[in-house]
Amino acid sequence: MPRVPYDKPALDFAAQLKQLKDRGLNVENEDKALHLLEKISYFRLTSYWYPMLKDPKSEKLFKPDSSFNNAFKLYCFDRELRKLVSGGHNIKINNRTYSLLSMIIYLLNIINPSYTFKNKLAELFAKYSNVDLRAIGYPEGWEKESMWSN
Hints:
- The chain is an all-alpha fold.
- The protein has helices spanning 13-22, 30-39, 42-49, 68-86, 97-111, 117-127.
């Protein structure tokens, strides 16, 4: 299969940040945003600002009140949740997360009823209150289910 040429020029970090701002993303601290683009990368952060895009998403324009800082907080939440769930192994968090966490809690209730995982998870949710739990598979009223109540 022949290679398809890529004609789009690469953008430096300042141009990436300008493009995000031109598309409507609020940037509270440009120096911090540039640093994060350099260290984490534009494409790694893309999945965290994707929910902030207006429909149709193909236009790549942000909803009002979308911010770089919120995308970074979602990135941090994802990193800490993966660390909590996997013991440091690399797993992907997606809309099946609720099912995975429910299974972990169910098994921990049987194996070790005095575990602290549920409390640590609640602390993580409180720390990152900007996370839309429905987007990772949590149903309406999940906290009232017996396995989640203390």
